Amino acid sequence: MTLFNEIDPDDAPGATRPPETENWRRAETDGLLTLWLDCPGTSTNTISETVLRELDVLLDDAKQAQPRGVALRSAKRGGFAAGADIDGFADLRGQGATEMLQQGHDVLDKLAALPVPTIAVIHGATLGGGLELALACDYRIGVEGVKVGFPEIQLGLHPGLGGTVRLTQLIDPVEAMQMMLTGRSAHDRKARRLGILDALVPERHVEAAMDAAANGKLSHDGGGLRASALRTRAARSLAANRMRAEAEKTAPNAHFPAPFALIELWERHGGDPSAMQQAEVRSFCDLLDSATAQNLIRVFFLRRRLKSGATGPDGIDHVHVIGAGAMGAEIAAWAAIQGRRVTIEDVALAPLGETVRRATEICGKRHLGGIETRDALDRLMPDPDRLGRARADLIIEAAPEKMEVKEKIYGELADQMKPGAILATNTSSLPLSSLVTAAPVPGHFAGLHFFNPVSKMPLVEVVSHDLASADTLDRLARFANGIDRLPARVKDYPGFLVNRVLAPYMMEALAMLDEGHDKEALDRAALAFGMPMGPVTLADSVGLDICLEVALSLREGLDVPVAETPGWLQDMVDKGHTGRKAGRGLYDYETEKPPKVPADDPDQNVIDRLILPMCNAAVECLRKGIAEDADTVDGALIFGTGWAPFRGGPLHYARVRRDVPDVLTKLAAQHGPRFAPDPGWDDFG
User: Fold this and answer.
1) Which residues form a coiled coil (predicted)?
2) pLDDT digits (tens, 9 = 90+) for 62-87
3) Largest CB tally within 10 Å, which of 164, 210, 292, 491?
4) In terms of DSSP bridges, do strands 125-127 and 118-122 run parallel, antiparallel, or are they unpaired?
């Protein structure tokens, strides 16, 4: 990312911290006042109540001093501001939330009304409250690589500091609504094209752009004809109805009220900015009280908790990946994109070329520029001669799930790995207790279980075994965090944590198909609960051959079994009907499309049979110490599978629902011991 290539923003040149502030520094050059946001003790700015209160004082001073312009900048290298300080409002309710939000509105309104030109110079991540602060300025100058957006919808909220009003007034209202409804960011050139930015420049041209803005020489791009056409309630209603229909497909109103509250807010008040601003405060506070928002805020904290124990250097500069299949290729590509030097080997040459192609594709989807893509590909080196084995700090084995294949590789590595290097296996089904006997140095061996696709799934299970050293596990957790993945520390167990909990979901669906249940009805019921994919579709996506392997790996060693696989499943696999990758599985993909629309009135008994065994398995893993606590279990399932995030995770759902053990007992009486409540429920509160 091309950020601050000529100066170091952490120096905030010439800026001093006024005695009344902790979060701001100020500097004045040629009559232009620059306020540098610099929250102490963190590499990332957030917009907190204190930040805004201090800004309020600085704006009063600026109004009195009458500089020729006021510019807001960030002294953090990573970006302008990541959004609002969630810690500051997560526990607020009712009048307290309303008062805090109104105070924030008053400060931004004061910024917008300042009688001198105001300029936001934004770089890197400029999100949520940070973008709202920028929108309150007269001009926005983006530094190349800037990314702007409103991710509040991911917390079950919408912008609450005037963002709904200012963005829909500034640019095409439909484009503005799409940004807020999806939570997607607009990268530098798109933000400029939409009209959010008045200029997009490299850092070396920022001073000139600021001077131009202060002198009124930057032109604004308004919302154009679409904005004029949507000033009437009738026109907005037509657009709003289309938005509701689209939102219902991916975020049903029954589970996700925020998109629909945002649409209602714009439809009713989009022609009256003052009324819309007042209604925004009320709507935000109502959403903040909702179970959905509270659970999604919980998910935010779960993410932060997984990362919190994995900070600091990992000592891993060179990664070598063995196996350029789907998983190995993605692991190698992702590590290279995240700045690691990577070599990758395979028994064939074609997969190595595919790895480079895949890395290029991921770079494009990540909106990396040409130089960044070039640098990432330079770090990714196909290694048919296996030279990286002797040079790597970390070797990730992503070979086929066959014990004899992995043992052969480990035997070769014994004389090739450099001292202190770590060997990690990406196995998802083989027990580490069996593999460790073949590892060159048992203490330097562990599991590093990525999820497919690596570039999209944020979780990595760091899997321990009895002989793994604490230093090895710590370094692997820090490595996962260092490549922007979430490390969940788990112990060796059939399926580890995530697959142990997820397997009953698919296996029970197969058993229900064997009983004669309709596959689409099963999938639609699961979608209605909030799962990202129905269990039948998931089995096809994973691969029915893999499902069989998972079932076999879980058959022994579990206190509560999963459902037996029907005999016809083996027949399908033998015929090559292994799922989506083969074009045919439980669905025939030439003639059928798996459902994407949730059931309107799903059968609760079907939902319970699919979901409650997952809760039961989660309690089993908690009782056995496979994960250290309930938050790790919930976080791993949400980030590793997409488990209904608005419900807060399987254990949180069970805690809120309260009757899960009783329902499991009834299901066990009807369908067998696989539903028997785990003993851990006795201690689960």
Assistant:
1) none
2) 999 999 999 999 999 999 999 988 98
3) 164
4) unpaired
